[in-house]
Amino acid sequence: MVSKWFTLVTSRTVKVALGKTAENNGENIFNEKLFRDIEFGKDKKFKPVQAGIMLTTQSFIDLTKYLINERGQVLQKIPVISHEVENRVINLDNLEMNSLYYLSGCILFKIFKNNVICKDCIESAGSKQYDSTITFSKLVYLKCYKKNTLFFVNDEIFNYFYEIEVTFRRYMPYLKTIKCDLIQFYISKMTHISCKPLKNCHNISYKIMKRFITFRIKIYCKNKGRLKLPVYSSLTMARHFIVK
């Protein structure tokens, strides 16, 4: 039992890693009571080494639960990209920030239009009322020819879009070399991004992330020639093309 514990704690291979299934969750091995009741020497008193083992065990369990439940992408087989790429700084100028804010409102408008979203979720994301205190909302305001037509996202939601955009740009130069589902690849890289003020009773945060990633991939790949076939907005248009 002690040998198995040592193997799990020191190993860095996937084959012996802990998981959620019953056969590899390590409940029998990582049992604090087991190490607490171990007796050393003739006096059979509690030794300081046991406290160290128990502390190591609990730390290993807590870290494993966090990696499995919160950062599950570490167990997926994704392309290896250097730490320099993942940590490089991405800066957006004023024009790009205004464009991103406009795009954020368009993405949310599409989500609200094509999905069943409650009033609380919509209000937590923003409103159709112009707020001059939001720094990058001027472009949307200029495009709003009639009142209550375009959607103005609040600061918290815009920061959520900003984090997604920054992460997308970080890996954008390597899209041609990635041989996997690009949407799932980006989602796995964005699990650390969240927006707590956003109501999530209709899973709107995931809808935002997936739709935004899909849109950005479509635009980028279309410009770079990765999309070899035309992309249609509906099945009807695709069928018309096939008939021709």
Number of strands: 2
Coarse shape: elongated
Structural class, by secondary structure, is mainly alpha
Please state the average pLDDT score: 75
The rounded Rg comes to 25 Å
Distance between the termini: 69 Å
Strand content: under 5%
The biggest beta sheet reads: 2 strands, antiparallel
State the strand order across the main sheet: 1-2
Figure out the total of helices: 11
| Helix fraction bin | 40-55%
* Whole-number total of structural domains: 2
SSE run? HHHHHHEHEHHHH
Give the uncertain stretches in residue-range form. none
Structure description:
There is one protein chain. This protein has helices at 2-10, 32-36, 48-69, 83-87, 94-114, 119-125, 138-143, 155-171, 182-189, 204-224, 235-243, and strands at 126-127, 152-153. It is mainly alpha-helical. A two-stranded antiparallel ribbon has the order 1-2. The chain starts with a helix and ends with a helix. The chain has eleven helices and two strands.
Summarize the structure.
With 244 residues, the protein is mostly helical.
